[in-house]
Amino acid sequence: MKTINLLFVTAFLCLTFSFTANAQSETKLGALLAYGTEVESIGIGANAEFPIVEKLTISPSLIYYFPKDEAGIKINWFEVNANANYYFLDEDGIGVYGIAGLNYSSVKVDYDDSAFGGFLDDYSASDGRFGLNLGGGANFNIGGSITPFAELKYVIIDGGQLVIAGGIKFSI
């Protein structure tokens, strides 16, 4: 099974980079700040944008939300995204795009009983779920190799989550 997964990932990367060489856009790497409505926390992350064909890019990202600690319960949450961005408008210094893609979210909850005098046992649980991303975003071309951007997406998953993100992308 691991061999099949490795072959699939290798083939996907080879296809991605072969299409990227033929596309007219630039490859970009970036950093972002995000807020998730379900986790109710701010997160930091990294993203990339690989051109495939005119007006279409592949945009993977990773967001790690700052842990929350409430009454001895610590919550850690992160998400990995594999999105496709389709540019509807790309002129006059702004690029507006739609987002569609896959999401993997992981949540880990730890309960530390020392906050309540040690009468109960410590507890830990984690869960990971796959979902779908739908949304939109905009790149703001200010000249040079740095591009500010903003995104709004909804993650269709148990409970759902609206994610508001902004950051910068660097052309490489």
Structure described in brief:
The chain has 172 residues and is mainly beta. 12% of the residues lie in helices and 66% in strands.
Walk me through this protein's architecture.
This protein is mostly beta strands and 172 residues long. The protein has one domain: Porin. The chain has one helix and eight strands. The protein has one helix spanning 2-22; strands at 28-36, 41-53, 56-70, 73-91, 94-111, 123-140, 146-156, 161-171. Strand 4 and strand 5 form a beta hairpin. The longest helix is centred in the N-terminal third of the chain and has 21 residues, at 2-22. It starts with a helix and ends with a strand.
Topology, pairings included?
Blueprint: H1 2-22, E1 28-36, E2 41-53, E3 56-70, E4 73-91, E5 94-111, E6 123-140, E7 146-156, E8 161-171
Antiparallel strand pairs: 1-2, 1-8, 2-3, 3-4, 4-5, 5-6, 6-7, 7-8
What are the key terms here?
172 residues, mainly beta
The CATH architecture designation is: Beta Barrel
The level-1 CATH class: Mainly Beta
Helix content: 10-25%
So how many helices?
1
**Major sheet: order of its strands?**
1-2-3-4-5-6-7-8
Q: Any low-confidence stretches, pLDDT <50, length ≥5?
A: 17-24
How much strand? over 45%
Order of SSEs: HEEEEEEEE
